[in-house]
Design brief:
The complex is a heterodimer. Chain A is mainly β. Chain A has no helices and eleven strands. In chain A, a hairpin with a 6-residue loop joins strand 4 (about 30-35) and strand 5. In chain B, strand 5 and strand 6 (about 55-60) form a beta hairpin. Classes of the chains: A mainly beta, B mainly beta. At the A-B interface, strand 4, strand 5, strand 9 and strand 10 of A face strand 5, strand 9 and strand 10 of B.
């Protein structure tokens, strides 16, 4: 069974701070996706990483896929209150999710 | 593009009744759809993989006779919660895989089921 571990599970920070969320597994994934979910809504895809070592940037968000395609990280620079939400990493081969990181950014 | 809808968005039912949830891909065809369940403040748990024209594949611990899945067309999958009980109350989310977009999955908005 493929499992994804996400850390931290909760993060409460002040506006302007930087943060990193980690997603780790003992399994190799063909690709990995990061999602953000607002309460009462479905997850919204942020990025897909496919190649080991790949780095993708989405404005203030930087995503990295580990060389061995077993882990990934999401780094947010200068967090804003609008970044508040549940961040989920999901790994393929069939999409399974980590426990999620609940981020709260306070003004 | 790649919009997935769910209906209803919320439903309240009495214990013992059955509830059907629809998942539609609006602007693309999805040979594979997925059903997830999410309890409050928890992550999404994959329940089953729904393949058009064939039987669904259920994850370990998910009762196939309780959660009936039908994927009769390339744009519609349904999940029926049979003989619902209060412990079935949850947020049910479907997703559809887009082959043309590197197998990315797009999620529906979810259906909140409350069983009284």
């Amino acid at each position: 069974t493929q499992l994804l571990e996400q850390s931290p599970q909760f993060l409460s920070i002040q506006e302007g701070e930087n943060l990193t969320v980690y997603c780790n597994s003992s399994s190799v994934f063909s690709s990995l996706q990061w999602y953000r979910q607002e309460p009462g809504e479905g997850p919204v895809l942020l990025v897909t990483v496919v190649t080991g070592g790949e780095v993708k940037k989405l404005k203030r968000l930087t995503f990295q896929f580990g060389d061995a395609r077993k882990d990934s990280s999401l780094h947010i620079t200068a967090a804003q209150p609008g970044d508040t939400g549940l961040y989920l990493c999901g790994g393929y081969n069939k999409l399974i999710f980590g426990a999620g990181t609940r981020l709260a950014v306070h003004p | 593009g790649a919009v997935v809808s769910q209906h209803p968005s919320w439903v309240i039912c009495k214990s013992g009744t059955s509830v059907k949830i629809e998942c539609r891909s609006l602007d693309f065809q999805a040979t594979t759809m997925f059903w997830y369940r999410q309890f409050p403040k928890q992550s999404l748990m994959l329940m089953a993989t729904s393949n058009e024209g064939s039987k669904a594949t259920y994850e370990q611990g998910v009762e196939k006779d309780k959660f009936l899945i039908n994927h009769a067309s390339l744009t519609l999958s349904t999940l029926t919660v049979t003989s619902a009980h209060p412990e079935d109350s949850s947020f049910y989310i479907c997703s559809a895989r887009v082959v043309q977009k590197d197998n990315e999955q797009f999620f529906g908005p979810g259906t909140r089921l409350t069983v009284l």
